[in-house]
Write a structure and sequence with these properties.
By secondary structure, this protein is an alpha+beta fold. It has two domains: about 160 residues, Electron Transport, Fmn-binding Protein, Chain A (Pnp Oxidase, Chain A); about 40 residues, no CATH class. Helix content is about 25%, strand content about 35%. The chain has five helices and nine strands. Strands 1, 2, 3, 4, 5, 6, 7, 8 and 9 form a nine-stranded antiparallel β-sheet that branches. α4 packs across α5. The protein is globular and about 60 Å long. The two termini are about 35 Å apart. The structure holds flavin mononucleotide. Flavin mononucleotide binds next to β2, β4 and α2.
């Protein structure tokens, strides 16, 4: 079917004229990230903490998917299944890239770094703060494996619900990971595609900031 209505070549818009200046940036990119996350929340973005996580699999194939940022401490923490595609990729190559895009603000943040797996106590602490429905879903899901059909999934969920009337056990293969950033880029869309881009890189124990060509 040809592109009848979806004229991709004509699909474009101008970005607002909201400058990002060097003097607007915090010296510490984690503070800048917090500030932009807060702006996204205040702007009514529905999932401001949704970020694209890119990993590389054993064949060198990059793979991207969305996960939710759950903690912001010395790094960025997310949770998932250890036997999923991303879990296996991170076990092999503990490096990743994260990307936030907030359409309402014409902003993007790219983050790259190394990833460590959290200890079981930390992961289970968060697991038990999740709603019961989500705990059960994590318990029965063999994430990224084929499933026969939707009914099989729902039946497994209901069986787990009956089997664990009180506390749902934290699955052994469900984990938290923390990405330790080595590089950030803050992008602010500007008119005429003359966007503002600033990269933070760690050099000799401190963050260096450079403006990049759009
Ligand atoms: C808004 C949104 C939030 C998501 N959050 C998570 C998450 O926090 N953890 C997770 O494992 N999957 C999350 N997913 C699902 C993943 O994108 C993905 O489908 C799943 O983790 C399997 O990825 P994989 O097969 O590449 O490992 C989310 C998806 C969306 C669209």
């Amino acid at each position: 079917m040809p592109n009848r209505d979806l004229n991709l070549r004509q699909l474009r818009r101008e970005y607002a004229d909201t400058p990002l200046r060097r003097r607007d940036l915090a010296d510490d990119p984690m503070i800048q990230l917090r500030c932009w996350l807060e702006d996204a929340r205040a702007a009514g973005v529905r999932d401001p903490s949704a970020m694209t996580l890119a990993t590389v699999d054993r064949f060198g194939q990059p793979q991207a998917r969305v996960v939710l940022l759950k903690e912001l401490d010395e790094g960025l923490v997310f949770y998932s299944h250890g036997l999923s595609d991303k879990g296996r990729a991170l076990a092999l190559h503990p490096k990743a890239s994260l990307l936030f895009f907030w359409d309402a603000l014409d902003r993007q943040i790219r983050i790259e770094g190394s990833v460590e797996r959290l200890d079981a106590a930390h992961t289970c602490d968060y697991f038990h703060q999740r709603p019961r429905d989500s705990q059960l879903a994590a318990l029965i899901s063999r994430q990224s494996e084929p499933v026969a059909n939707r009914n099989a999934l729902e039946a497994a969920w209901q069986a787990a619900d009956r089997a664990h009337p009180d506390t749902v056990p934290c699955p052994r293969d469900w984990h938290g990971w923390r990405l330790h950033p080595a590089r950030f880029e803050f992008w602010q869309g500007r008119p005429s595609r003359l966007h503002d881009r600033f990269r933070y890189q760690r050099r000799d124990g401190r963050w260096c900031i450079e403006r990049l060509a759009p």
